Amino acid sequence: MNGGRYRETKEGHRAIKTGFSQFPCALRAAAIYGANASGKSSFINAMSFFQHLVRKSAKDDSGAILSSLPSCKAIEQRGKVEPTLFEVSFIEEDVHYTYGILLDSECILEEWLHAKTTKGRIREVFSRSRENEDYDWHFSPFFSSKKLTKTWADATRSNALFLSTAIQLNSKELVPAHRWITSRLRVIAHSSHLAELVTSEFLLDENEDSSRLMELIQSADPTVKSIHVESKEIDDQEFLSVFNDEFRAKLLETSLPKTDYSITFKHKVPGRKEYELDLEEESDGTQLIYRYAAPFVQSIKGDLVVVIDELDQSLHPLLLERFVAMFTDPSDSETKAQIVFTTHDSALLSSDAIHRDQIWLVDNVDMKGSKLIPLSDFKPRKTDLLQKLYLQGRYRAVPKPRVKMLDRA
Predict the structure, then answer these.
(1) Considering the entire predicted model, what is its pTM?
(2) Cα→Cα distances 252→5, 186, 235, 247, Å
(3) Residue 99 bridge partners (DSSP)
(4) Are 17 and 38 in contact (CB under 8 A)?
(5) SS3 111
(6) What are 111-127's pLDDT values in tens digits?
């Protein structure tokens, strides 16, 4: 999320200097609020779909990925379904990229990539637009070989991305942009079990940052003294049976190892004997922190962008503040890690963990679609009690109950 409006004050640690004059800083965190069914999860799911498309479209010649385009993204207007537009702006290796796709459930209609260095001008790296059954292609001198770009274009199916296809055919020029979308962006949907697998693998590898991970878990439950993880290979059917249909479909398209984990927490309470609990026996909050621990630690160390749906679920407000503070006030001031998360926890609005410039609101506009609005559009005063005003509906993005309370006898 752009921090262009953010003014560097004594709280300048909340932003990252970009080196680009048109947006001199980017916020380290963005909290997204909104009523139930307002579109918060749809926003996260859209990012997940976009990333999955970039990763897999070149390998999926069936077109199944496009046909799985979430129905919530297709807005019916005047009796027809409009194409879906995705566009993301990011910085990788000191280059500002803007990558966009226009698509429907059958084919890619348009695709483009623009790039700009800190001292250069914006230039189009490539673009394509569909006209009838053919594409109009444009390539800049960004590429070292016109012959190769023609080869990559010819190999790109109508239901696949050029970015994905060119990478599969060993394009070196597009590696930074592709890497940011597929690796530096970490999207954790509400129903995802992938983060739990990541933390388990992290502990099995005895990573040097395991102590930081343990500190994070112990912040939720100080009685946890150690965590023991064992892995075993299992057959596909047994492995896939533990996941929901959506995640199972994604796993079938990956080369993830079919591994099951036995996760045991050892507890020590003063005056009592040590005891052990399986992860499933731990509290919902502890399970959630275990799921997010490794992605958080990896994001801070690797300058990643982590996107999480319903971060506050089963978390005490103080633990939520601590999670967010890892990004907004990190111990490593040089990190460029960022976090975007959805939440219902209004107490965070009154805390020091997040600044008003880092707050966004999802509002369902006349039931026709969702709009993401920065809190700054409402021009709140420094003396405003944000939590109180938000719950009162001053900034919209709150439920509008229509059920009357029963009269008490």
Answers:
(1) 0.82
(2) 43, 19, 13, 9
(3) 88, 113
(4) no
(5) strand
(6) 999 999 988 888 999 99
